[in-house]
Design brief:
Shape: elongated
Largest sheet: none
Distance between the termini: 11 Å
Structural class: mainly alpha
Amino acid sequence: MKAGSGIPLWIIALLAGLCLAVLAWTTFGFVVPFKHETGQAVLDTYFAGYDEAAVFHMQTLLDQNETAAKLLSAMYFGPELIFPALLTALLFLALLKLGPLSAWFGRSHPLVGQAIYLLPFVYGIADYGENISSLIAFGDSPSAGLAAQLLPWMTRLKFASLAISCIVLVRLAIARWLSPGRD
């Protein structure tokens, strides 16, 4: 049996290229101008996470700087509307391309396999949840307080699921590369 799915490598490469293009759009079109305008980074770039105090500080900053508020809103309705879907698809298709579970670990465990295949979708849902929470927290919604509390947790879940997905992909790629019957 041939390991991997019938997904052509060029599709995965195309998705990776699109992800890089949208990431560049986000960075150079919104993150850098936001930092130039405010002197502070967008909360989405805090890989180590942040707390409610940072969200409150950002709310205050955006209330005082209309240009920064418009930049942040445009970012969420522009590249951040596309990027989570692209990266979710890339992660999922890369997992499918690496082959069936029995090829990964030498044995098959249905629960582990389902959890591994769900990781990219957890990332995508968490990223969209973070974006929605940001829009609500930094807007004039009566639910801004709840969104401000939820926002740091959505960011942690997003980065945790992304990190785990990447670690699993690297481990599986290495295992497939080292396997004696690789393609």
